[in-house]
């Protein structure tokens, strides 16, 4: 009895080379495609403990907004750098600290405190916000965004931004 080997039963050197010639570029192309897709569509990972020391608040007057400046760590790839930022801080009569993001929720202009109106006023389009950050007059349609806050001793720590609800 004689057995004959067919071409499909045995992988010769020529077939191995053909598979390698076609397979290796496909593997490289797939890897490059995955890297480009991750770069274009991947999200920047934010460090879990994003708290920034905003300074000593023992000298701040209760019921009056104070603009404070602080450095926060910004992670960009493998680089961590300090970026100057600011916040409007209000301490109420019950010692509760609120820190507002210093940009208007309408189009992102910087607003300021107007003592004569006892309100935050945006000079770009005229939005007016109360001491609690609520909209008094538009065109802004949602309250001011806030930083997460914690106080340790007399030091204020600012965390992530909480976006206010609105239309």
Q: What is the number of helices?
A: 1
- Could you please say which CATH topology of the domain at 52-162 applies here? Rieske Iron-sulfur Protein
Distance between the termini: 85 Å
Mean pLDDT: 81
CATH architecture of the domain at 52-162: 3-layer Sandwich
What integer value in Å does the Rg equal? 29 Å
Protein described:
- The chain is of the alpha+beta class and 167 residues long.
- The chain has a domain of 111 residues: Rieske [2Fe-2S] iron-sulphur domain (Rieske Iron-sulfur Protein, 3-layer Sandwich), CATH 2.102.10.10.
- Helices cover 17% and strands 35% of the residues.
- The protein is built from 1 helix and 10 strands, in the order H-E-E-E-E-E-E-E-E-E-E.
- The protein has a 6-stranded antiparallel β-sheet with strand order 1-10-9-4-3-2, with no helix packed on it.
- Strand 6 and strand 7 form a beta hairpin.
- The protein starts with 12 loop residues before the first helix and ends in a 5-residue tail after the last strand.
